Batch of 2 targets.
Target 1
Amino acid sequence: MGMVHAWNGRKFQIMNSDNQTGQSAAVALEPLRREIDAIDEQLVNLLAERRQRVQKVIALKQAKNLPVYHPSREEDLISKRREQASLAGLDPDHVEELFRSVLRQSRVKQTAQIIRTGVRAGAKVLVVGGAGKMGGYFSRWFAQSGYQVRILEVDDWPNAAALCRDIDLAFISVPIPQTPAIIQRLAPFLPPQCVLADITSIKQAPVDAMLASHPGPVLGLHPLFGPMTSNMDKQIVMAVPGRDPAASQWLVDQFSSWGSIVEVLSAVEHDEIMSIVQALRHFATFAFGQFLYRRQINMARTLDFSSPIYRLELGMVGRFFAQDAPLYASIISATPERRAILKDFIASVADNRELLEEGNTEKFVHEFKSVAAWFGPFCDQSIRESTFLIEKLVERF
Amino acid sequence: MGMVHAWNGRKFQIMNSDNQTGQSAAVALEPLRREIDAIDEQLVNLLAERRQRVQKVIALKQAKNLPVYHPSREEDLISKRREQASLAGLDPDHVEELFRSVLRQSRVKQTAQIIRTGVRAGAKVLVVGGAGKMGGYFSRWFAQSGYQVRILEVDDWPNAAALCRDIDLAFISVPIPQTPAIIQRLAPFLPPQCVLADITSIKQAPVDAMLASHPGPVLGLHPLFGPMTSNMDKQIVMAVPGRDPAASQWLVDQFSSWGSIVEVLSAVEHDEIMSIVQALRHFATFAFGQFLYRRQINMARTLDFSSPIYRLELGMVGRFFAQDAPLYASIISATPERRAILKDFIASVADNRELLEEGNTEKFVHEFKSVAAWFGPFCDQSIRESTFLIEKLVERF
């Protein structure tokens, strides 16, 4: 018994190196461990029973076309369990966390089964760029939900007229720089009542192009997730209304039915927010990873000696570089406004050169405190959320 | 029934706007929901029973001075539950996740109760800087573990001789720039056999100063966590042996007993790794938050439209600015080598100015791919870990 740690390469016994104490304790612990095992077995049995009931709920919801996510039912369920936990001397936060996890799991299962019945199953959907990563992702979701999916790729323009015949939706998923030109090229083939929608991560130029070239319903979309997202549960989709929202309501409903949360805003506000939420953030991550690469930092070694939060931060950088290079390059430099903000950012970073001179700590502390004061209450929330995640990370890895 | 979403400020019913279908479905769901509630109640009862058994295990371990964390027992328990889950048609990964959470919770409780019996309870510990955040944190942990804790603060130097009398450990927790000078000032008062240890986040200068001024046992420590960490479970502490490791083994054991993982390395390697793991990372975070502040970005609004990953990243920035400004200023600019690396980083970021010129996407893509190739297999791991965390974030918030 006793924990063994490496100390300068040699192995040392840490704590309780007395083997006899260890063995007698193990004997004494044995019956308790058997009892705990029995309880754990019952826990899993109950989870399996719960799963059966949830299956029945799914069948019912499916028959009645009810939504998967039912916020007030979930909150009610959680409060009951929190109360019971408190009375039983358990930590209610921890019990809540366990039940949130169970509920999410059942929501994911429900979504996976319910998607097969699309909001407008049978409708014809043309995915332009359907062989790309995002295009392929949504083609699969549409197809699984019972839509008739057609794909228009670079080589298919000679067949454009046939591909567009009688379609209910043209869904544009092509690289940002080509979006307006492809919309113009496609528009003449579209039935007038067909919904024209795009999923580009900027919205002003594409929505303008769609409104200018198609007289029918227009909807700008921007799903805030990538093709690596295994399901759309609670993922955000930004929607910019173009023309005739009632005619494209079914598409919004389809995203809701896939589990997404649809948020509506104007193209201008979308692009302004995204220049920060996407461009600045991605550029900062890019520059960080680029520097690690340029200096050929031994990452494995840094991870050996890293706190969970460093691991998490480096993980975000790794995640970024696992994405599609052209997509991210175009997100970062999509518009002149965006490029101007990033140049300002570069200048702002460089401003700190003098803070790094020896003995300038005071100025640095002053700047730090100004930013901290401005972040204000958001800091508390950040700490709560990130502490929760760090604990998850510690638990798992 | 039916989900309600905002569409341009007006409320629309999404899916199942037919109220009658909704009501009849609710009636049909009712008995199933009651059954699920009953199962959930039993789950919480079992968790409470489990907790009672764990209490008994704690009492036994405490009596026998056994370690809290028992990796092979945990892995064994997890495999049994995974197997049972698979047989019952449940997702074994999800069941593993639930049990890891339950195990962690019980480990935290165990640690909280066991710390009261210190590895060398009764020993006299002088915490220099014990009124500071980190100093106060460790003073509490030592005191709770039965040590006799004394504190030496700025005003206490006239009593230094009395405070140092018969101490077993002098534990230095003062700002980085003052560390060597304070060590020199303290050393003449120390009993020769007393352990001298510091927790500064650089190691070469402090360990050199300790070796030069104290003839007895010397140990450099660097806990990779801050005073906001509620417990030390699996948190990393770097240890740089100075002199006579056998004499300070009990201190290493004490950290293990508090739940920390102690990693041993040389002062040179420590400082090299930390210039990246701490200084570069903190500086990059600082520069990012500083820019948001300078541009007065409406953060609340960006959060309304943010993906879980953005929320997480911004949360890390918020967390950073909630920390102690002088501590982070000194971590960032602790040594000339560190400052040189950060200046290189600034230059590297600025190098990207030309990548942001219009039409330079190709060059950007090329650079992106070089970095991505170098990140290599680490990307996969990052995606697994961060996907797991994003799911947690979606679940909770």
Note: Chain A touches chain B through 185 residues (CB under 8 Å).
Target 2
Amino acid sequence: MKKIDVCLSPELIKLYDLKNKVVVIVDVLRASSTMVTALANGITHIRPYSNIDACEEMRNSGYLIAGERGGDIIKGFDLGNSPLKFLQEKYFGEKLAMTTTNGTLAIKLSKGASKIIIGGMINLEAVANFINNQNKDVIIFCAGWKGKVNLEDTLFAGALVDRVSENFELECDASMVARAVYSEAKNDIIGYLKNSSHVNRLAKLGIIKDIEFCLTPDQFDIVPELDGDNIMVR
Amino acid sequence: MKKIDVCLSPELIKLYDLKNKVVVIVDVLRASSTMVTALANGITHIRPYSNIDACEEMRNSGYLIAGERGGDIIKGFDLGNSPLKFLQEKYFGEKLAMTTTNGTLAIKLSKGASKIIIGGMINLEAVANFINNQNKDVIIFCAGWKGKVNLEDTLFAGALVDRVSENFELECDASMVARAVYSEAKNDIIGYLKNSSHVNRLAKLGIIKDIEFCLTPDQFDIVPELDGDNIMVR
């Protein structure tokens, strides 16, 4: 039987063997939710950057540039990290360069995997279908917050483990930890997460609508995948 | 209000500021359970070692020597890592040098804290009382398994957070994650943990009685504390 495992922080990913595995990167608030929404609304592909300057230079190659630090839009950038800005195909046909606090780092650390895909609550079912159809073991890689474990990414990991549990064996304890969080939260995900530290941080920035959007499951039936330097839908 | 936080792995402890805090080290299976049982049954103090040779040398200073690697007793040592061996004051008045896989490392990484104490399910209430009576913030430090998050230490962290929640503010998401695990497990802790990877490992070694013992709450009303190089009850 295929195996599924959960890595709860970028600081722990070195303990996992990614070779020949599908890695599902999740940064629910908000990088992975923004990527999914952008690609579902006509962005052709996304280039992720950890470095602000490298990201900004992509403007010269005709890219929209997007990025946040500490939840705020970077000065001079076209967009921050709000998925809502990409709705209604507002940027249809554009290409996007994007830098974020935690999500981009997770992508960088996942090199070596067989496939790297992007998951969030908003494309949960699509990701579940994708990994069910692959003949490979899976690592769900939570981007976390500055290296620490966070609640929303752990919740997503638990939700995904729960959805695919008939087809996968749980590899180690972190999967059970994540599933316990999902089990406790599932009847009122937004209410449950209102106590999390990152939701509190974001709520202070006045982006409650972003949070509600990012936590609402199964809005988009697409799975973004890393292809060379680009994230795109195949 | 005092704050409480949970560190789910030794790989993450560098992200926490331990200064002026009480650190509760937990390695439920079995280092912290063995330490509590030994000290509750007449061992005068314990010296923890990460290195096998350094631990073995303490025999020349009149210490009993105890240690395991991968769950097995180290060749030539007096004792392994089974708490049951210390019951009925079998080694009353002896001093103990001890080396373990994960627990000793956690102690080493906690230097810098105001106080370092040892917790397990078997002295849960004693630890809860201890931290309630200290005027300091608390970090519960899970020893984990080779750097990875494990279920039994996370469960203890959740149980302790739950017991002291009226007196502490939860500092970050890991506390909520741990509490969710405890909440799901609390009505049948042993049944819940029988699916965990480490319990499976140990069960193969035939030490089910150890596991049941280590998971039974509130057996000993003592709190081991690091005092210089020694772990002892003040």
Note: The longest strand of chain B covers residues 2-7.
